[in-house]
Design a protein that fits this description.
By secondary structure, the chain is of the alpha+beta class. The chain is 35% helix and 16% strand. The relative contact order is 0.06.
Length: 525
């Protein structure tokens, strides 16, 4: 345990290393330490936060003058700790009350970074998912914490018992605990001590910083859950009060009212209105009530605001953007992959859609008598990742051109697999891909380009971008049989796998001309 107690200095910057805060790697030749942040490549191979399980050779000791890394053999305990630690520090937005789902989050993270954890020819066994679940349950109550032991009451959700301890520190403490067990066996001690008590004793013995030794705050989770339940009960009580305020009639009282209404006649004053006008008004009101139909969200005469002008006052934006408007230009942290995404995928000034050509012709025709008029250069078409300020406009376009009830807020959890096209502040098109539908398959859910902006390469680039984001995995999608976009998908290599009859029957209205049968297409990688 000297590695935890001894103070080391970085060979590159000559500053102290701090456990769980500013860790580093130790050179196997000169035994000097180097900060992770001081490495010439910027981070350890794989970019997993807290991953220091490498045999490292520094610049001075390397024969080629390049830092060398060789992965040490990892146990499943270390792999699960690395996955949970990275998710907690870099992808905390995926958590529910601090807990992560063992299959959707932990297993999928290990699956995506398998080559980083297990480089070489190590193959995935068929039952490796059961190994992850078994390790979580085996080390429960002293290394990992299940959601079943809280008011949260979700047994499939897990977190670390010591969230501030790094995976390297936990592995060192666990090896020290196994040594302590062997010593007790050699001494033939009959004291019965649980693993949780023994591990807690070792943590307090070797780590003096009380902030690092704090366990996961279960009381805070219980309070949050209780507050949520109170809010739900208050909402239910308000709804019940509203119902109590409304008059309620039993069958007997309603029959009495009907009998009274049949005997009493409500006639208007003869001096004001004649009998003919009363009858005509009653007949008109009956005809109007019969002809009334429920409001449809897909009404083409309804106005849909798909510009970002009224959405510049979102809480997710900085104060400068709130005051001046515009599109954000700072980098974006993805909650799915914990990678910083650039503000633009691409900025194009060569694409010239038919709508912009029409607007340019209108401007030239309106100013033909003005010899000093010059047509201003148009703004670029921006291909960006989806952000919260885009969602209202995208939902409105989906409700207008697809079907009602679509909400793409969930796509903010994986912005890496999205593409939103903007012209100034107008949403021109968008495309979304749902990752990890299966272990080897992704699914394209929506691809849309606004009318007047089609047949100029916008949709082609969006599909190309989605294909590039899911390298090594198959991509599937559904497309209507008579949709011309099917030929675009064929150019990228999508092939028809199956014909799904009445696929869009529960989505499309009866008066829509587009076919409700769909092709299931697959791009094999």
């Amino acid at each position: 345990m000297e590695s935890l107690t001894s103070l080391k200095r970085c060979k590159y910057c000559n500053e102290h290393l701090e456990i769980c805060v500013d860790e580093g790697l130790q050179c196997i030749k000169c035994s000097s330490a180097v900060h992770i942040r001081c490495l010439r490549r910027g981070s350890a191979p794989g970019g997993i936060n807290g991953d220091v399980f490498f045999e490292f050779i520094c610049l001075e000791c390397s024969e080629t003058g390049i830092e060398k890394f060789h992965r040490t053999k990892l146990s499943w305990l270390q792999v699960i700790n690395l996955a949970l630690y990275h998710l907690q520090t870099r992808s905390s937005g995926l958590a529910r009350n601090g807990f992560f789902h063992w299959r959707n989050h932990i297993v999928s993270f290990i699956d995506r970074n398998w080559e980083t954890f297990f480089p070489g020819d190590i193959r995935r066994k068929k039952r490796w998912l059961g190994t992850v679940a078994g390790r979580l349950s085996y080390y429960n109550s002293y290394l990992f914490l299940s959601g079943a032991k809280t008011v949260f009451n979700k047994p499939a959700w897990w977190t670390t018992m010591y969230p501030k301890l790094s995976p390297y520190v936990i592995s060192e403490l666990y090896s020290q605990m196994s040594l302590e067990k062997q010593r007790n066996k050699m001494k033939n001690e009959k004291k019965i001590v649980s693993d949780a008590e023994l591990f807690q004793y070792i943590v307090q013995k070797h780590i003096k910083n009380e902030e690092l030794t704090q366990t996961f705050n279960i009381e805070k989770v219980n309070l949050q859950q209780n507050e949520m339940e109170l809010d739900q009960t208050q909402k239910k009580s308000k709804n019940m009060k509203k119902k109590m305020l409304l008059p309620s009639y039993s069958e007997a009282s309603s029959r009495k009212l009907l009998k009274l209404a049949s005997h009493v006649s409500f006639l208007p004053d003869e001096s004001l209105v004649s009998d003919d006008t009363v009858e005509t008004k009653i007949n008109k009101s009956r005809e109007q009530s019969k002809s009334r139909q429920p409001l449809r969200l897909l009404d083409p005469l309804c106005h849909y605001n798909t510009s970002l002008n009224n959405i510049s006052q979102m809480k997710m934006q900085k104060l400068q953007i709130k005051l001046t408007g515009g599109i954000r230009k700072e980098i974006i942290l993805s909650p799915y992959s914990a990678i910083y995404l650039k503000p633009y995928i691409r900025r194009d000034t060569q694409i010239f859609p038919s709508w912009l050509k029409l607007m340019a012709e209108v401007q030239l025709a309106a100013n033909k008598n003005n010899p000093a008029f010059e047509l201003l250069p148009r703004a670029p078409i921006d291909f960006t990742y989806v952000q919260p300020e885009h969602i209202p406009a995208i939902n409105s376009l989906c409700n207008q051109f697809f079907w009602s009830g679509i909400d793409l807020t969930e796509s903010l959890q994986y912005p890496d697999f999205s593409c939103v096209v903007l012209y100034k502040r107008l949403v021109v098109g968008f495309a979304f891909l749902v990752p990890d539908v299966n272990h080897t398959e992704n699914y394209i859910s929506f691809v849309f380009t606004r009318p007047g902006w089609r047949n100029c390469g916008i949709g082609k680039f969006m599909i190309y971008h989605l294909i590039q984001t899911s390298l090594g995995k198959d991509i599937t999608l559904h497309v209507s049989i008579n949709n011309p976009a099917f030929f675009l998908y064929q150019k990228f290599g999508f092939k028809v796998e199956n014909v799904v009859l009445d696929f869009y029957n529960k989505y499309y209205r009866n008066d829509i001309c587009e076919s409700k049968h769909a092709f299931l297409c697959r791009l094999e990688r």
